[in-house]
Design goal:
Alpha-Beta Plaits; 5 helices; alpha+beta; about 40% helix; 8 strands; 5-stranded mixed sheet; single chain; disordered N terminus; 3-stranded antiparallel sheet; globular
Length: about 190
């Protein structure tokens, strides 16, 4: 559950945002991350690469828990600022060959294309959750968040992008039913 506190932040974070109508279609205009379509393309390419190299890859689907509360209490502008900060925090956790994208609203996807062990995906998921522990400070307010992260691994959970996305999303739903603020692999 999102813990939203509205109070004066000791140090406000200034965020300059420029919404450009010329944002490339493969980028999310709000966060600057690749779009959902771009992630699907990246995932498809990574599956082909994994198939030919006979190695695994992981898809992490991240859904911020109770994000609606943030926008209801703080407003849409602050909600957008929170999403931009989440994108920055998640991007800092990635390896060079990983790809993070904003799928929609408060949902993010991450492709780990060169997985040597599924535990690497668990480690990244844990790092993503930890990155949300520190409240996101804005002018005169702050937001504390948690997330639910579903992990799908190629080839064991599916052989194409749609299947992996579905498996990871179903895993997120299961985590949310159990209270959220956790990560999990698909269970057979």
């Amino acid at each position: 559950m999102a813990n939203v506190e509205v109070r004066h932040a000791p140090s406000a974070i200034e965020v300059a945002v420029h919404h450009d109508d010329d944002t490339p279609p493969n980028l999310d205009a709000l966060t600057g991350l690749p779009s959902a379509d771009a992630l699907r393309e990246r995932l498809t390419d990574a599956i082909e690469h994994a198939r030919s190299g006979r190695h695994e890859l992981a898809l992490l689907c991240v859904d911020c828990d109770d994000f609606k509360t943030v926008t209801e209490v703080l407003g849409r502008e602050h909600g957008d600022e929170v999403l931009r900060e989440i994108a920055r925090r998640f991007s800092r956790q990635l390896e060079e060959n990983d790809t993070a994208a904003r799928l929609e609203a408060d949902h993010f996807g991450i492709v780990m294309s060169e997985l040597t062990d599924p535990d690497e995906a668990a480690s990244l998921a844990g790092s993503l959750l930890i990155s949300l522990v520190e409240p996101i400070r804005m002018e005169k307010c702050q937001a504390s968040l948690s997330a639910s992260i579903g992990i799908a691994v190629y080839p064991r959970d599916g052989g194409d992008a749609d299947t992996l996305l579905s498996v990871a999303a179903d895993t997120v739903a299961r985590i949310k039913r159990q209270g959220g603020n956790a990560y999990a692999f698909n269970r057979p």
